[in-house]
């Protein structure tokens, strides 16, 4: 599918991500694809948009898988170098790992966010990725 912003993605972009906007720098969009058994959301980031550092917490199991579908983005774990993301990339994020993900400065970016089932799961949203750290990518 092509949209007015020249991105191509298999899944519809969805509405503005107002439910989680406080945890993002910039504008994102969320199209929830599945809630039964495994949560799957298509998250689209405008250029320069990224989510805050966060941790997927569970007592057992859990975590998140990102399936990159369009554009160029970034993924970074705490105290590790950032990893560039392209369509077709897969990122497995174990529970308990502090991380962030988002678009490159000059590109829209979309990924499917798959929540790995776990016991007593929750997300802990933390500080924004600093402009200085993001600009250095």
UniProtKB/TrEMBL annotation:
Gene3D superfamilies: Jelly Rolls. PANTHER family: BLL4564 PROTEIN, RIBD C-TERMINAL DOMAIN CONTAINING PROTEIN. This is Cupin 2 conserved barrel domain protein. It holds the Pfam family Cupin_2. Residues 43-106 form the Cupin type-2 domain. The lineage of its organism: Bacteria, Pseudomonadati, Thermodesulfobacteriota, Desulfovibrionia, Desulfovibrionales.
